[in-house]
Automatic annotation (TrEMBL):
Gene3D superfamilies from the UniProt entry: P-loop containing nucleotide triphosphate hydrolases
Keyword Transcription: no
CDD domains documented for this protein: BY-kinase (cd05387)
One Pfam family recorded for the sequence: GNVR
Keyword match ATP-binding: yes
Annotated protein name in UniProt: AAA domain-containing protein
């Protein structure tokens, strides 16, 4: 028989697939479990109450610090040359981001921890209540010799007996009494002592818990809690924040942090400034020695070269050279004049004539002789005008004239010798000057090099002197680059806030059941809803059947009673009729499933009863030859001969094998004795003969067959059937079986292949509640409502969890 896809009208319980949109389905799904949500909300509210009871409030602490002077928020240096920035560390610009990192550095934090002794915590224990004793502790822990390592910290517990004695709790060695200030030796802490404070009188018989931590670890914890942020890069204001259970401690931490930072910055600046001054002093000493050496070298050079000032000396040489040249020229002129006079005087032709005179003659004695000679010569000329040349009167005049001429010649000779001497002297002088002028460039070069070296060192020396004075003045009046704008102050407790805690508890109270239900559904490997079937397979669903808690195998009655399940089977009967179409007699329907206990025997037997009540002559075949159940359902003897006898003995009278069920119109053909080879028996043609014979007598032939995922019997029997009804049981059939159902459908192994979703528990799976609540109430006017016991109500309520 070929497979036929038939439109089926199914009886559907309100569920994911049949009640409104997906959102409405989801709401109904979760609201069904409202007791779970109520219990979860109550539980989280109780937890919130105790949380608020035991959680101490945490206070936010804030402070603000401002950076002054030239600042840079982008890492650039402002208006400072590299040399000045190096030699004047006090005036270098402040890079805010760098300072923020310094403030958050472990070095600064460690100083805060050690100064405030935050690595020791004191707690007053009174019953279940604990009180932090920051700045109120009656004792103070002090190391004498620390141990090797504290690990995560060491806890001590003491009881103060009086103002001088305390008891140290020791579970291993027994409690011991110690005096305050007395050394105590323990393996984990080393040697330590407890000093009493001014608060000791207020804590008599008090139990104090002391936790001694590792300062490094405490510093790391403190670093993670403190935030240092630059609010606006255009304004150098830095905000510091932290939180603490004790506001006073939080304020002390921030104030100490800012103070430590300022002190560290000042010390760093002073240290850098002192380093710069020390460097300048060393350099000045070195330059002083070098300058002394250079000046001595210049002095020795001037002395050896007979130098005063090269420029003046050069000009003097030039002036002397000009004067020598002029003197030599004057001497030449005088020599020329004297030689002319001498030639004139020695010329016989001019014996009685006077030599010519020259205005350039500079010697007064020669000029005096010339004048005397001119007077005698004039006197002789006057005598010649009256006397003859031979007159004896001329003898005295001639003698006088001859004597004057001789003197004149001698004078000329002497003057010539003098001029020659002058020329020789100037020539010698000029040679010395020329030699001196030739040495000047070399001297100037050597002197300039020595002077340049000396002047360069003088400039450096002068610069360092000025810089030292400048840094010294700043060092003496150094001010901090930062200023505290707002001291640390505590705000209102930021946590816990009861309103927020209860809102969170409500959210968790609602979310926890949702997560639990979602996880429970996600981890469930078994089919729970019709939608899971419809999403996975294309095989139509013939109907849905509710789960029955009682053990009665036949739940369908002809009159009043189990109304809901009875109506479901009647709808299933109607859908079966639609499935078979026009066939009204001899309809063969096979019931099977994937595995056992999915309800095929229950459904087939109750559907057979429903068909019989409808006036259709029906027979049900117990064809599960391995594990028969139908006979037991109807209270029939399993020893009665049945199908196996017919298949083995082909001439067996069939009428002797059929048994009445006790319900009018319904007969049962039992299994008979269990055979070792049921599959081979079902392969025989006698099975077809059996079915055809029964079709002639009965309107409906229902076959209860074995699960097909376990044995192949149902595949063999399917050749005789007009339709196959495949059972799926809620909460029992595995989701993996849906893929197997698809494989069977794709292989077209069964005719008119349909499914029945059986054993639906609306309370457990939030499925089908609408049928009982709404659908049932519409029939309440003519049908008695099923009685619910207190136990059933309680079980129904528990299923909502």
């Amino acid at each position: 028989m070929s497979k036929q896809n038939t439109q089926i009208t199914t009886f559907t319980l309100p569920s994911e697939s049949s009640t409104g949109s997906g959102g409405a389905n989801l709401v109904k799904k979760y609201t069904f479990h409202w007791p779970l949500f109520v219990l979860s909300v109550i539980l989280f509210f109780v937890l919130a109450f105790f949380y608020l009871k035991v959680t101490k409030p945490t206070y936010p602490i804030y402070a603000t610090i401002q950076f002054k002077g030239p600042t840079s928020s982008d890492g650039t240096v402002i208006n400072k040359s590299g040399q000045d920035a190096t030699l004047d560390p006090i005036s270098t610009p402040v890079i805010v981001e760098n300072e923020i990192e310094v403030m958050q550095s472990k070095k600064i934090m460690y100083k805060v921890v050690t100064d405030l002794q935050l690595w020791v915590n004191y707690t007053l224990t009174s019953g279940d209540e604990k009180q932090d004793l920051y700045k109120k502790s009656p004792v103070k822990f002090r190391y004498i010799k620390a141990g090797a390592s504290l690990g995560t910290g060491v806890n001590l517990e003491i009881t103060i007996k009086d103002n001088n004695t305390y008891t140290l709790t020791d579970d291993e060695n027994g409690d011991k009494d110690y005096k305050f200030g007395a050394p105590v030796r323990t393996d984990d802490l080393g040697t330590w002592t407890l000093d009493k404070t001014s608060e000791i009188a207020n804590y008599k018989d008090a139990v104090i818990a002391i936790k001694v931590g590792d300062p490094d670890q405490v510093t790391d914890d403190l670093q993670s809690k403190i935030k240092v942020e630059l609010e606006n890069k255009d304004a150098p204001f830095v905000n510091l924040s932290t939180s603490d259970l004790v506001p006073e401690r939080g304020k002390d931490i921030l104030n100490s942090l800012m103070a430590q930072y300022k002190d560290d910055a000042m010390n760093s600046k002073n240290k850098d400034a002192q380093k710069a001054i020390d460097f300048i002093n060393v350099r000045l000493d070195s330059l002083d020695r070098d300058l002394d050496i250079d000046e001595t070298a210049i002095q020795n050079f001037k002395s050896s070269e007979a130098m005063t000032d090269i420029a003046s000396q050069s000009q003097g040489f030039r002036d002397i050279s000009q004067a020598n040249i002029k003197a030599n020229n004057e001497a030449d002129i005088q020599l020329n004049i004297l030689e002319d006079l001498e030639r004139t005087m020695n010329n016989p032709k001019n014996a009685d004539a006077l030599p010519p005179t020259s205005a350039h003659l500079e010697d007064p004695s020669l000029m005096d002789l010339y004048e005397k000679l001119a007077v005698v010569q004039m006197k002789k000329q006057e005598m010649l005008s009256t006397l003859p040349p031979t007159s004896p009167l001329f003898d005295p005049v001639n003698d006088q004239l001859a004597g004057l001429k001789k003197d004149f010649r001698d004078k000329i000779t002497a003057l010539k010798a003098s001029q020659y001497a002058i020329k020789a002297q100037t020539a010698k002088f000029q040679a010395g000057i020329q030699a001196g002028l030739k040495k000047i460039p070399q001297q100037d070069k050597a002197y300039t090099a020595m002077k340049r070296k000396q002047e360069s060192k003088e400039k450096i020396y002068t610069f360092l002197l000025e810089k030292r004075e400048s840094i010294s003045l700043r060092y003496a009046s150094t001010v901090s680059d930062s200023e505290i704008v707002d001291d640390a102050h505590a705000a209102k407790a930021k946590w816990p806030k009861p309103a927020i805690v209860y809102v969170i508890a409500l959210l968790f109270g609602l979310a926890a059941p949702v997560g639990l239900l979602y996880a429970r559904e996600g981890l469930n490997e078994r089919i729970s809803t019709r939608k899971q079937i419809e999403d996975a397979v294309k095989v139509p669903i013939l109907g849905e059947l509710s789960y029955q808690e009682d053990t009665t195998p036949i739940v369908v009655t002809q009159g009043r009673g189990k109304f809901a399940i009875g109506e479901q089977f009647r709808v299933l009967r109607t859908n079966l009729s639609h499935l078979h179409g026009n066939s009204d007699k001899g309809r063969v329907t096979l019931f099977t499933s994937s595995i056992g206990s999915e309800g095929k025997s229950f459904v087939s037997s109750n559907l057979a009863v429903t068909l019989a009540y409808a006036g259709r002559k029906t027979i049900i075949l117990e064809m599960d030859l391995r594990k028969p159940k139908i006979s037991g359902v109807f209270g029939l003897s399993p020893e009665h001969r049945g199908i196996s006898d017919y298949l083995v003995e082909t001439h067996t009278d069939l009428s002797k094998l059929i048994q009445p069920s006790g319900i009018p119109g319904l007969d049962v053909l039992g299994c008979g004795p269990i055979q070792p080879n049921p599959s081979e028996l079902l392969e025989k043609d006698v099975l077809d003969k059996l079915i055809n014979t029964l079709r002639e007598t009965y309107d409906d032939v229902l076959i209860d067959s074995p699960p097909i995922h376990l044995v192949t019997d149902s595949y063999i029997i399917a050749r005789t059937a007009h339709a196959v009804v495949y059972m799926i049981r809620q909460g029992h059939t595995l989701k993996d079986e849906l893929e197997f159902i698809n494989d069977v459908d794709n292989a077209q192994r069964f005719p008119k292949y349909t499914l029945v979703f059986n054993g639906i528990k609306r309370d457990t799976f939030n499925y089908g509640y609408g049928y009982t609540n709404s659908y049932y109430s519409s029939y309440n006017t003519y049908t008695d409502k099923e009685k619910e016991t207190l136990g059933s109500k309680f079980r129904t309520f528990l299923r909502r969890f």
